[in-house]
Amino acid sequence: MKNYGVIVGSTRKNSYSEAVAKAIVKGLPEDAKVTFIKISDLPLYNQDLDVDSPVEYTRFREEVAAQDAFIFVTPEHNRSISAALKNALDVASRPWGQSVWAGKPALVASQSISGISGVLAHHILRQSLVFLDMPTMQQPELYIGHSDQLFDENLEPTNDSTKEFLASAGKQFSEFAAKFA
């Protein structure tokens, strides 16, 4: 069994990023332990707080450390990842030399209500994960465009092809992550 952490880059309630993440998770093995890790309460990273970290930093670092693999789903904010997601990456990579991300396999998905599907945010996130030493699944590439049309008011996929595609990505990720056990 693997512990899968899910980091949703949107802090909005009922976000499309969360909907995409939940659809991906449905493809993981039945015995997978899945934890959606909260990032909305993290104070902005400040190196001065490395010595006496806020409880939110400590909680987040411990939750990240307990995971074997990660699913990241990000919206695109001004052609980049959200500030909350960038902050979360920074908090768990510090203090210097004590990153809890290293070596953990990752899946990256981006979504947007536009047709460009968050492609720039996707690649910016991948670039950060390279620095954090997280092997990242390359295929399939999960650029989810027009997300407002792919999910209903309950954030369920509106069609079988979306549902099947995202679940199959989750299955493929479980196979990819198993290589790093």
From TrEMBL:
Name of encoding gene: chrR
Cleavable signal peptide: none
The name this protein goes by in its record: Quinone reductase
UniProt cross-references to PANTHER family, sorted A to Z: CHROMATE REDUCTASE (PTHR30543), NAD(P)H-DEPENDENT FMN REDUCTASE LOT6 (PTHR30543:SF21)
Taxonomic path: Bacteria, Bacillati, Bacillota, Bacilli, Lactobacillales
Organism of derivation: Vagococcus luciliae
NADPH-dependent FMN reductase-like domain mapped to chain residues: 6-147
Top enzyme category: oxidoreductase
GO molecular function: NAD(P)H dehydrogenase (quinone) activity
Enzyme Commission no: 1.6.5.2
Domain of life according to the entry: Bacteria
Classification via InterPro entries: Flavoprotein-like_sf, FMN_Rdtase-like_dom, NAD(P)H-dep_reductase
UniProt KW keywords: Oxidoreductase
